[in-house]
C-alpha cells in the first residue's frame, strides 16, 4: 500500500476505505489510471475489511471497470461486508473518483479461524429470515 501511495481512510469490523491519487507511474497507455492500480486499491480495502474479522485468504475476486480515471484524480475504494459465515465472507468494494463510480470489485474469502461470528450482515440473529 505504501509503495502505491495508498492511505487507510477508515477501518472497522467488516468494512474499510482506502484512498490514493493517480500519479504518473499509475497510468496506462491511454494516459488514465491503469486497471492494476485501481484493482490494487480495491484489493487493499477488501483485505482490510475481510481480515478485520480474523485471518482470511481470498477465494475469488472480480472487478468491473466503468470509467477512465485521469492523472491527479483522488480515488477511494470502500469495502462493505455483504455476507458473513463461519467459513466464508463476501465483500463489495465500490471504487469512486470525481464523484462517480468508476469500478466495482467483489471478493470472497475463506476465514482461517472459522470462529462463530456475531449477528450481522449475512448472519441474522435467531428468528430473523
TrEMBL record:
Keywords: Hydrolase
GO molecular function terms noted in the UniProt entry: acyl-CoA hydrolase activity
Domain Thioesterase, residue spans: 30-99
Parts forming coiled coils: none
InterPro entries: Acyl-CoA_thioesterase_PaaI, HotDog_dom_sf, PaaD, PAAI_dom, Thioestr_dom
A Pfam family: 4HBT
PANTHER family in UniProt: ACYL-COENZYME A THIOESTERASE PAAI (PTHR42856:SF1)
Name of the featured protein: Phenylacetic acid degradation protein PaaD
